[in-house]
Automatic annotation (TrEMBL):
Location within or outside the cell: Secreted, Cell wall
Superkingdom as given in the UniProt entry: Eukaryota
Similarity field: Belongs to the pectinacetylesterase family.
Protein name as annotated: Pectin acetylesterase
GO CC annotations, alphabetized: plant-type cell wall
Lineage of source species: Eukaryota, Viridiplantae, Streptophyta, Embryophyta, Tracheophyta
A GO MF term: pectin acetylesterase activity
Main location: secreted
EC number: 3.1.1.-
Keywords per UniProt: Cell wall, Cell wall biogenesis/degradation, Hydrolase, Secreted, Signal
Amino acid sequence: MQLLLRAIFALLIVLITEGHPVDITYLQSAVVKGAVCLDGSPPAYHFDKGFGAGVNNWFIQLEGGAWCNNATTCLERTKTRLGSSKLMVKTVSFSGILSNKAKFNPDFYNWNRIRIRYCDGSSFTGDVEAADPKTKVFYRGARIFSAVMEDFLAKGMKNAQNAILAGCSAGSLAAILHCDRFKGLLPPGAKVKCLSDAGFFINTQTISGTSHIEQFYSEVVNTHGSAKNLPQSCTSRLKPGLCFFPQNVAQQIQTPLFLVNAAYDSWQIKNILAPGVADPRGTWRNCKLDILKCSSAQLQTMQAFRSEFLKALNSLGPSSTRGYYINSCYAHCQTGTQETWLRDDSPVLSGTTIAKAVGDWYYERKRFQEIDCPYPCNKTCKNRNFE
């Protein structure tokens, strides 16, 4: 028991020294605009103001948390923080790319740093005028994005000199889909770029050979009325559901984009490659929780997934402004956690931390477009274990 208490105490010390608490802000003025969470509550964010040379620089991170694809799953989300701001914690810890310490975040520590909470289930793309008459659920993600951006412009973002729209997971997908729109809100002279962390979800088949994620994304887009808010450069060519896949969107994005992703993205392995519906007997359960528990056959399947991932990435074609950091870790979202963003023991690719690669790309000190060798070659990886 004493050992456990010591371990917990040590972890708390690390969190206190590496992160700092930032209180929640509820955007009550958004409600009259219909910009509300699934349950009708106001959108929310956490805002840590910039200082010194960073007062006119803005880093905006869109929170992740998957999606809801029909009336039932969206109603279920209203009972969680992912569908209601009433259920969100009042304070979150900023660390990694949101840190306010130069030691932990040398390029962005003194910027205005914001985390927009995710409560719409559509990667901020939905906009259905009327609430669902049966469930009383609102599908208004795109309105939330517009309302919070208007609020930040009024709070000084209209004078931005530098700005990044970023996100994690579903928030990262939102950062890709809204990237050019975000740039259009800012002064013409501002340096504006977008950062995707674990948002390059690929359209591939499950272990049972079904197109599970393609069908799921189509249902998300249909449920939320997202089509009109997806990039027209994609919807003019493809069915709207296919425009939820970055491989079909990113090539046409005009704003510089950086992709941070694990080639063995743990969320994609668990939910795209081997979701429960494709694995009714649960033969992949232990493997999905811990890559060290995967059989040789399962690892072979995951290597094939990596090949599909790299094929989708390469289909974007060459770009002098696009950057990417594709490591071979079993992980999901690596910029918001100090351990993987920048620490003495952080993962490296070509001898470079994620923080250094992103900073060099943003400030155009050095181009970074690197893909790791296959698992398990990178011994610096922080491979996640799940419960």
